[in-house]
């Protein structure tokens, strides 16, 4: 058994799909319905192939804060990625829980789903 995809609840499937496809460079696994779409990494040929998938589901109920689950997005250049995501429609979260040595910043997508952008520095093997 393995995790198939992480599901985010949304109110506007088109807006959320546009945001996450642009943010992650993912593709629709198949044609979205009015209330469901699964996004896969580019080139993922089959649902069981490696690579984390993200599903979006219209549920009709509001987000809860604080959320009980969120995504961590790893970034070599955190500041640049945050600016790019803000340009796509993400919003900064006013949160006072950061420790002094925090290597993450909390944002939320167009639907209010919170996620962190974590500074990793260069990925192993980058530039090889």
Give a structural overview:
With 128 residues, the chain is an alpha/beta fold. The protein has 2 helices and 8 strands; from the N terminus they run βαββββαβββ. The protein is globular, with a radius of gyration of 15 Å. Pfam families: Glyoxalase_6 (PF18029). This is VOC family protein. Residues 2-120 form the VOC domain.
Enumerate the spans where pLDDT stays under 50 for 5 or more consecutive residues.
none
Strand content: 25-35%
Strand line-up in the sheet with most strands: 1-4-3-2
Order of helices and strands: EHEEEEHEEE
Main beta sheet: 4 strands, mixed
Number of strands: 8
The number of helical runs is: 2
| Rg (C-alpha, Å) | 15 Å
Strand and helix map with partners:
Blueprint: E1 5-10, H1 13-24, E2 27-28, E3 36-40, E4 53-58, E5 71-75, H2 78-88, E6 91-92, E7 104-108, E8 114-119
Parallel strand pairs: 1-4, 5-8
Antiparallel strand pairs: 2-3, 3-4, 6-7, 7-8
Q: What is this entry, summarized?
A:
Pfam families: Glyoxalase_6. Helix content is 18%, strand content 29%.
Question: Top keywords for this entry?
Answer:
alpha/beta, four-stranded mixed β-sheet, 18% helix, globular, Glyas_Bleomycin-R_OHBP_Dase, Glyoxalase_6, VOC family protein
């Amino acid at each position: 058994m393995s995790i198939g995809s992480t599901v985010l609840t949304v109110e506007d499937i088109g807006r959320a799909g546009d945001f996450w496809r642009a943010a992650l460079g993912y593709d629709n696994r198949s044609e979205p319905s009015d209330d469901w779409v699964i996004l896969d990494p580019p080139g993922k040929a089959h649902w069981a192939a490696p690579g984390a998938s993200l599903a979006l589901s219209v549920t009709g109920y509001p987000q809860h804060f604080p959320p009980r689950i969120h995504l961590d997005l790893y970034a070599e250049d955190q500041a640049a990625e945050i600016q790019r995501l803000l340009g796509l429609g993400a919003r900064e979260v006013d949160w006072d829980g950061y420790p002094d040595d925090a290597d993450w910043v909390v944002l939320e997508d167009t639907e209010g789903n919170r996620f962190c952008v974590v500074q990793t520095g260069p990925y192993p093997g980058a530039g090889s």
